[in-house]
Structures are given as C-alpha cells and as structure tokens.
Queue: 4 jobs
Job 1
Amino acid sequence: METEKLDVRQKMCPMPVLLTRRKLEEMDSGKVLEVIGDYHPALENIQRWAKNVGHDIIDVTDSPPGFKIKIKKH
C-alpha cells in the first residue's frame, strides 16, 4: 500500500489539521497518509478531526520529540 507523507513539524494548531485536511482532499479514497509532527496538541486534534469526517486511523506512534499518525482516507 502506497503511503504519502505530510510533515507538519514546527507548526502549531490549527495549521497541522488544515494541512492534513488539504492533503487528504487531494488523495484518492483508500490511500494512506502518514502525518509527522512535533506539536503534541496536534496529535489529538488531527485524530479527532479525521474520525469526525469518517477517515480511519490506522496507526499512531507517539515518541518524543514527535509523533506519526497514519490515516486511511474514506
């Protein structure tokens, strides 16, 4: 499965969520996006937003200094 990557490090909310939304809008259904970030509140915000709009959270890795979230587009 091909995974696209989005780096939102050094960005504070709401930018990580907005950039994630924009990137997923460009992608085909069923594709996976890996979001890499370091602003901890964005970890929760991205997951909450993705679930609310119907995307699947496949994997979350939270290991300082950053995090990775894999999202499968619905």
Job 2
Amino acid sequence: MRILTGIQPSGKLHLGNYFGAMKPMIDSINDQDEIFCFIADYHALTTATDSDTVKNNINNAILDWIACGLDPEKIILYVQSDLPQIAELTWILHTVCPMGLLERATSYKDKIAKGIPATSGLFTYPVLMAADILIMQADVVPVGKDQKQHVEMTRDIAIKFNNKFGETFPLPQEKISKNIATIPGIDGQKMSKSYNNYIPLFDDEKVIRKKIMSIVTDSKAIEDKKDPDQCNIFALYKLVSTEKEQLDLKEKYLQGGLSYGEAKSLLFEAVSKYFRKFWEKRNQLEKEPNFVTKIREKGQERAQIQAQKTLNTVCKRVGLM
C-alpha cells in the first residue's frame, strides 16, 4: 500500500499538526507500505507574506518532522517545489476539473470567512492537492476531518481523467483517526495557524505555557463539578498523558474543587514531559552543518522517480508525448 501525507510550512508546527498528521504517519511505518511525506510549500504560498519566512519555514518543518521521529531512510521525505512534475500535473488536472467542484469546497469558504484574501490560488487549492496525491499514485491519505472533502475531490478529478483518457490513477481513500480527527485549539475551534489558536510544538517553554494558560473555558467556579468531555483542556490532556493520568484528572473534574488554572498547569507539565526528547533532538539537529540540504537532495532524488513515471504516463494519455 502506498501512503501519502503533507504538511504546510506556514509557520511554527503545533500540537494539531503532530497528533493530526505527524504521529499517525510515523506510527504507521512498516515494511509492507511505501510512505511519502512532503512539505507543502506551494500550498503555503497562498498565505505567505515574504520569501525569507517561506524559506525558513521549509527548513524548520524538515527539522521538526525528523525531531519528532520521522526516519528519512524509511519514509520518502521531500519538498513539494523540488518536484516540478507536480506543477505540470496540476495544470493538466485543471483541464478536467469542473468549476462546480471547486465552488463547493467548504475549506475555501471557511478561509474567506476568516479574512484570508480570496486569491485564485486559494480557490484552486484542491487541484494542486489532487496533483500531490495522484503524482505518487497514493492509495491512502491520512487527513483530519476538515480535509476529507479534498480527498473526495481528488477522487472526482481522478475519475474525470480516467473516464476521458483511460485508466491512469488509482482512487485514493482518506484515513481519519476517530480519536484525533480534529485537535481543538485554545478557542475550541480546530487548531490552526490560520486561526492563531495553536499551541506550538517547538518554542520557548514560556511561550508554550502562556498559550496553554490562555485556553478558553466556561465560567464555572472552582467548587463546581465539571464535564471533562466538554473541556478543551482535557481533550488536549488525553493526547499527552497516560490512561491512569487521564482517569485521575477526570475524577477531579467530576468531584469539583478543581480550577481550570490547575488543569492547565497539569496540561503544560504533560506536554513538557511528552515532547522533551523531541525538543532536545531538534536542538542537536540544528547544529549539524548542511543537514537540511542533504535531506532535501536525497528526498528529491527518491521522490522524482515516481513523479516522473506518473507524469510520463499522463502526458502520453493526453497526447503531449
């Protein structure tokens, strides 16, 4: 089975990135599957502000992935823009993608509602995502619930192409973890850099603590009993704690006498404990000269084999070769 996932280098990675995409990918590694993981820098340009930031974010994303346990020997890790075949396939897919399909994209509408500028790149984002998936002939795409529609749209585009030019692309299936499909941010919405409601994965511990202490809660008093299943703090705590720790905190919620400030402090302690080894590894990787450059070169070399193979087939089917 061929599995593909990507993540935007649009700023500091956060807990939602790790538990929603990175951890499921790293945990899924086995000898039977072929796994592709890419840094989606083309996608990041839809919200980019300057070139230096884009470049730094790409480098940081690579360091973050490897610090979190991704083994570039077992997974093909590459940067999207290092494969020109993706941009070429995107245009070809545009010629079969119905306008109505893009107009139904809920992600585009959500981003516009949040004040993100309505560019044609943002509007046609699903076609580029389809090219990302189809260029590697992916069978499975691990995503959060909010990206489910994009994988469905990829299947629709693949079907359109296959019906017109002959069987070319497999129809990818989304894989959504029921437990962590959507990671809540500090305001209760999906954790996202776009919403500025995220808890960073790698940052000064004071910054991480400040973010955690700003999690929005209800107005219940300390002595009141609280529902852990309706609390953003507890939802995040479950991701970074043991089953026993979860049961102990849940009991405190239900008994009353627990302040949300105390719960936030317990969450910060659990986050620090969980990610401590990642923080230390990242500091070590930053000191290695040309580390990121070497990773990019190797990933590009490995990923281009499949990308060029797919593009050659596509070009022959449409008459360009």
Job 3
Amino acid sequence: MYPQLVEPNIVHVMNYQLLECNKKRVMKNTIIFNVSCGILILLIIGIILYIKYKGKQDIQTTMKKENKKREYILSKLQFYQKQRTKEFTNMPI
C-alpha cells in the first residue's frame, strides 16, 4: 500500500471544489468572450452602414438636387410675381 498524507475524503472534497472553480472560470470567460464578440460585430455592421448611407454623393446626384432646388425657388418667385400683378379683389372697375 502507498502512504497517504491526507484522508481520501479531503482529496475528494478538494477535487470537487477545484472542478467547481474551473467551471465558474470557464463560464465567466465564455460570457466575456461572447459579449465582446457581439459588440465587435455590431460595431463593424454599424460602421459599414454608416459609411454606406452617409457616403459621398456622386456629381450627378448633387446636380439633380441643385436643379430641383433652383426650379422650386423659381416657381415660387413666378407665383408670387403673378400674385403681385393681380388685382386684390375681383370687383369690376
């Protein structure tokens, strides 16, 4: 028989406690890893969407926008000019 320095019950209790500590450590590390990967994925998707939708517009699109603005302003000016030349009432002179 081999000589034993501690009782067998103590060895089993210590092994059980060490296994429990290992399970808790692995679970904590897994949660931290999953949360950090999730945040990283969301950050990458957010950056890609921001660049895609807020990116620099091409020349044709900006020209179309400017033309629409110019046409709107000119139409309003013409409308107000017509209103100014009209008589204020519809009564005959």
Job 4
Amino acid sequence: MIGVMNHLLHPDYFEHIPLVGNTIAQRLNGLSEVVIETQGNVSVAIRTLNEATALEALLNDIQRQKFNGNIDIVVVDNESTDNTVEVAKKFGARVVTLPRDSFTYPRSMNLGMESAKYNHVFLTVGHAQLVSINSLQAAFSILQDPDIAGVFGHALPSKNASLTENFIAIGNLHFTKSREAKKTGLGVMAATGCMIDKMTWEKLGKFDERYEQGGEDGALAAEILKNGYKIIDQPLIGTHHTHGLGFKNTLKQWYGWTKLSKPSSFDRDELVQRRPDINSDK
C-alpha cells in the first residue's frame, strides 16, 4: 500500500503501477509541496458527452483545489442525454452546448476557450481526474512568466486502468520533474490536461479547425514554439486518464493517435474504428 500522500488527490491509483508506482507518487507529492502560491484567477474548460458520474468526480477534484483566487468552470456539452448538465450546474459550472451535428474536437476546444472568463484556461475532459490539490495553482504560477504560453502534464492511470495501461505507466517515472518542452510530439499539450494563455491562443489563430478528428492541440503547440514562446512539462498538470483497454486495443489506440498529425475531416464511424477508447455514441 502507498503511504499517505497529503497533496495527491488519488494516491490509491498508483498502487497498481508495477515497480515504480510508489516512487512516482512520492515525487509528485514532493513537487506539490513546493508550489508557489501566486494569486489570480483561472478558468477550467471541460468537454463532455454523457459523463455524469465521471464529471462529478472531476468537479469534486476541482472543488478540493488549493488555489489562491477564483476558479471559473465552463462545461462544453455535446448534447448529453444523461444528467451531465444537471451535475455541472450543481457544482456551479456554466454549460455551453455544442450540437452533435456541429461537433469537431477543435471546435469544442475553441468554444471552451472563448467561453472562459479568465486569461489562463485549464483544458480537460469529463472522464479525467486531477492529480494533486495544487494542480491548478502549479499551472497558473508557471504561466506568470510572459515567455511561457502553455503548461501540460502526462496521462496517468485512473481507477479503471487495465494491466496493460498500468505497465505503460512505468514510463511516467521519466516525467516526474518539471522541464521545458523543446519540441512537440504525442502528449505535448494534450487537451486532457493543459493550461493555455488565452491571449496567446487568440494571437496564434486559436485551435486549427481543419483538424476535425483531433491533433489540433499538437498543432497549436507547434505554433507556440515556432513563435518563440515556451511550453513547460509540469507533472502536476497531468491527469488520471485511461480507458481500461487491453494490449491489442491499446496498440490500436496509439495507432489512431499517430493519424492525428495531419488535418482530417470528422467521420465518426471511421474515428471509432481507429480509436477503441471512443464509444460509438460519442
């Protein structure tokens, strides 16, 4: 059993990571202990579709944040038919509806950014959970440097992670120190856990809506670096985000992600074929 981690929201999620789970948890807890408490305001933009139960868990994580300022929450909902909207409103979140026949990944992200009240916007999805009580504070403090336009973290296993996903998480031992991202790649500024400076997002043309099936986050990251801004990899910004996929479907998922490096039109059926983590009704 992993010992008490005062600053981690879900220390039990690390118990099933082979060999290094306890080490990763200890390092993240240590990072959280030294977060600089800069005062200010942040927005959190969450993309959802029929995720009432998971969204409630995420909003509980947001409520537990030790943030020195105001937290504005906007939920971009893709016409959920469960009680996702009711859950969002129960936590005081503002809900913006994106019709299903108008959905693309970059459109949902741009809508979340446009609807955010504050300049520093944390982007995630309804089925993710935060790592630390200091996740938002860590991201916000880093973005006070005008040369830095984005902060992100890597995905960690959640409570539904498969054996395969927990074994893959061993690699997160290499991402337990804050560092500057010198180039883009899979996971850099992933929209499951990143914070972006809104003024820079607007200046660089927002998320490119040609990337209808995804990849718009990586494209914006490339623009950020191309224009001389910095991106910081801060492990505390990572989220617990896995889909319970076995070995075969995990490979299929990764293959699907590699197809997102170039713009492509949104085709729900084709996307589901490449991405086993996506339900056919989403």
